[in-house]
Amino acid sequence: MSRDPRPGEIYLEYHPIGKQVKVIAIDAATGIEVSTFGPASAAQEDLKRIAVRKLLRRIQQIASTGSRASDPTLY
Question: What is the pTM of this model?
Answer without folding.
Answer: 0.79
